[in-house]
Amino acid sequence: MRVLRWTLIAIALVLAGCGGSQHDPGEKYYLLSANVKIPYWQTAGEGLVRAATQMHVAAEVVGPDTYDAAAQQQELRRLVALQQKPAGILISPADPMLMKPDIDAAVAAGIPVITVDSDSPTSKRLLFIGTNNYEAGVMGGHEVAKHLNGKGNVVVFTMPTQTNLAERLNGYKFAFSEHPGIKIAEVVDIKGDPRIAFDTTKEMMEKRRDKVDAFVCLEAQAGNEIADVLDREKVTGKIVVAMDTDEGTLNWIQKGLIAATIAQKPFTMAYYGTKMLDELHHHKPASFDVNWAQDPFSPLPAFVDTGATLITKENVADFIRERDAAAAEAKKQGK
Fold first, then answer.
1. Torsion of Cα atoms, 276 then 278 then 281 then 284, to 10°
2. What's the per-residue H, E or C state across the chain?
3. CA-to-CA distance for 171 and 136, rounded, in angstroms?
4. Could you list the residue range(s) of the whole structural domain that residue 221 is in?
5. Is the CB of residue 145 less than 8 Å from the CB of residue 176?
6. Which residues contact 238 (CB under 8 A, 6 or more apart)?
7. Is residue 335 situated within a structural domain?
8. Is the dihedral of CA 220, 223, 226, 229 positive or negative?
């Protein structure tokens, strides 16, 4: 089972000349994703490395290079077993229940663990940082309803085991409940494989084109595949609302094949999460094994909402311009 360990350049200035710093040469923070190859997690990696560079510590993005919950579990176990224990771990659980015992084991070992993007709410993780996924679903649902004029059949592409995607689907369902004419005709589990989205869409367009009016993508990979099929098959009049802002999705918005996408803030999740892990590492509470969410005097929030933005053809150029300016600034600071 192949696991890609993508080491980020964040081991800087931890030298004898850094007198007065609270950090030490062995201090290292990890971001464990479910698929390190997709652009979303590369952006999160930039947030991790920005925070680590500012704090003069080491950081690394780890995880499988394809969607693989079991491989992610094994990687977490490897991190916990390291002789030099992680100063903190950010994790986006592919399967919240599968990861729960290992998250609990990490916390029991004195390693602060924060979930980002996707949560494992019944685990002993210290808090969740990410999108308010229910509200993101409501946002997307209203956009679909607007384009459908309150009537039509919708196909949803998702991965049902992920808590964040289930919350998004609930948000869509709430938005659609205001429009009795909109029905969710099918929910497709892509199982982390974008080819399933492509093949399913192609089959639908060949066999039941008239029975599908809109496609909703609750994760980042399906939108590109759906738009690709619609383009190849010369299909028009279908509404696609995607998730996240990889280059392909933005290109399809500009071409008019994707109506909108919901932009999250993976950079912010990892950046802020690393800063919080650093605080917890250097100012440890008496125990991490506390139900912080139920403690009225908890030093930690239960949830940090990093926000989401709807990107359409009207504002996609502004988004790209701002993204490129931020990337240039990040590169400049990294020199």
1. -40
2. CCEEEEECCCCCCCCCCCCCCCCCCCCEEEEECCCCCCHHHHHHHHHHHHHHHHHCCEEEEEEECCCCHHHHHHHHHHHHHCCCCCCEEEECCCCHHHHHHHHHHHHHCCCCEEEECCCCCCCCCCCEEECCHHHHHHHHHHHHHHHHCCEEEEEEEECCCCHHHHHHHHHHHHHHHCCCEEEEEEEEECCCCHHHHHHHHHHHHHHCHHHCCEEEECCCCHHHHHHHHHHHCCCCCCEEEEECCCHHHHHHHHHCCCCEEEECCHHHHHHHHHHHHHHHHHCCCCCCCCCHHHCCCCCCCCEEECCCEEEECCCHHHHHHHHHHHHHHHHHHHC
3. 7
4. 133-263
5. yes
6. 212, 213, 214, 215, 230
7. no
8. negative
The predicted pLDDT at position 7 comes to: 42
CATH number at residue 148: 3.40.50.2300
Query: Do 178 and 253 fall into the same domain?
Result: yes
Q: pLDDT for 183-197, tens place per residue?
A: 999 999 999 899 999
Question: In terms of domains, do 283 and 245 share one?
Answer: no
What digits encode the pLDDT tens for the residues 224-246? Answer: 999 999 999 999 999 999 999 99
Of the two residues 328 and 36, the one the predictor is more confident about is 36
Is this structure's pTM higher than 0.90?
no
Q: Which two tokens stand for residue 169?
A: 């689907």
The count of structural domains within the chain is 2
- The answer as to whether 226 is a domain residue is yes
Domain co-membership, 13 together with 121:
yes
Residue 112 shares a structural domain with residue 41: yes
Same domain, 255 and 269: no
Is residue 322 one of the residues assigned to a domain? no
